[in-house]
Amino acid sequence: MKKKNIILLCIVCILSVFIFASLVVYAFIRQEQKDAGKTGDPQQGQEASDPSEVDTNENITPTIEPQPTATTAPTPQPTTPPTTAPNSELTYEIPHEDSDPIILGFAGDVNLDEAYYPVKKYDAEGQDINQCFSADLLQEMQSADVMMLNNEFAYSNRGTKASDKSFTFRAKPERVQILKEMGVDIVSLANNHALDYGQDALMDSFDTLDEAGISYVGAGENVDRAKAPVYYKVGNKTIAYVSASHVIFAMDWYASDTNPGMIGTYDPTMLVESIKEAKENSDYVVVFVHWGVERATKPEKYQRNLSKIYIDAGADAVIGCHPHVMQGLEFYQGKPIAYSLGNYWFNASEKESGMLKLYLKTDGTVDVQLLPAMNKDTETYLLTDEIEKKNYYNSIKGLSYDIQIDEDGFLSSTNE
Q1: Distance from the CA of 337 to the CA of which of 28, 104, 107, 226 falls in 20 to 30 A?
Q2: In this structure, are 218 and 341 located in the same domain?
């Protein structure tokens, strides 16, 4: 073989090896990207007129961490040891007849952004909350001993909206009066919109809620406040609330020793610590968590895994939101899990909603009831027609795991 041909053959071989190696590297990178997508790091969403009607995919997370399983404990990390007594500044007292059950109420996502559907409806109706919720549903909220929901926006006139987010929500501080009219006592600020307008707006939210006498969990001026349980002494019982988000937009949204922010639960260690602290100081612990995939009616595997970790740590109930649609319910160790309570007052579309009620009875047992609510034309109302109620409960049962629902919405486990 001529020397020239040998040289050409060598060049061809070298090029072939280079191309093959490039293809291997490219395939490896693509697989890593796919794996990241499976663990909860979706792409940035598209602009739309209603974020609950499209998959906005604002589930952006700063890191990809392995998801815990229901049978494995979180990796221990150095953290502040639990306090021996509840913070008096985060403890609220509510008069209650000890012979009556304590009623805890829960609802999903509420959005009071100035340019959005609920506030426009409220103003168009002469700021009459009775035109935005049915009278019977308002009565249910206002009569609960403690009523909680997800506050998915900031209260502020300050701040600069995040430039790389599809949707940013902010309400005037005076809009907090709407929550008062609804009968809301406590909100979660651990979600993917509380910091839409930065830390100044978040701090304004704290001040606004404090002045209105509405407590908040899941966020704070520093990490200690953000992870701290809030307690309600109702009669002779103490109820503890903690909250965290599995949907955090950026690293600087996390609370730190010196910066305001919220608590995350990709690694559940810190939230588990808060649950254990709450358990030491209360009779009943509620975990309110922001998680899941928007518009998905079934929970992700990690939601089911984390809920069991929370209950194993001491939680008595796990309440979820963020998907903007109802997801099913489940019992674990006799404790209720509501994976998503959907939109409560968020948009103008027609879709199922719900108000969850927990009855803490004097004999130590707990009854769980789901009130059948609907959203339509920016009004949330209770279903009263028996056929509509039956269809609603059949739909929820189909999304749930091993539960029965009677005609009044009381839930029970088929495994117990």
Answers
A1: 226
A2: yes
- Tell me if 403 sits within 8 A of 414, measured CB to CB: yes
Q: Which residue has the tokens 């009616």?
A: 297
Residues 312 and 174 grouped into a single domain? yes
pLDDT digits (tens, 9 = 90+) for 237-283: 999 999 999 999 999 999 999 999 999 999 999 999 999 999 999 99
How many structural domains compose the chain? 2
Domain containing residue 178 = 88-413
Residue 88 has a pLDDT of 79
Q: Is there a contact between 358 and 367 (Cβ–Cβ < 8 Å)?
A: yes
Judge residue 13's burial from the number of C-beta atoms within 10 Å of its C-beta, 0-12 exposed, 13-18 middle, 19 or more buried. Answer: exposed
Which residues does residue 171 pair with via DSSP β-bridges, in sequence order?
155
Q: Is 38 inside any structural domain?
A: no
Tokens linked to 262: 């919220």
CATH number assigned to the domain comprising residue 205: 3.60.21.10
Same domain, 29 and 93: no
- Number of helices and strands in the chain (H, E): 9, 21
pLDDT for 13: 60
pLDDT for res 317: 98
Tokens linked to 128: 């009459």
pLDDT digits (tens, 9 = 90+) for 327-361: 999 999 999 999 999 999 998 989 999 999 999 99
pLDDT at 195: 97
In a domain, residue 339? The reply is yes
What integer is the mean pLDDT of 184-198? 98
Place of tokens 């919405």: 409
C-alpha to C-alpha distance for 399 and 234, rounded to whole angstroms:
33
pLDDT over 90 at 38, yes or no: no
Other C-beta atoms lying within 10 Å of the C-beta of residue 29: 10
Question: Token pair of 273, please?
Answer: 């610590």
DSSP assigned state of 67:
P
Bridge partners for 356 per DSSP: 106, 370
Residue 401 lies in a domain: yes
- pTM for the structure as a whole: 0.83
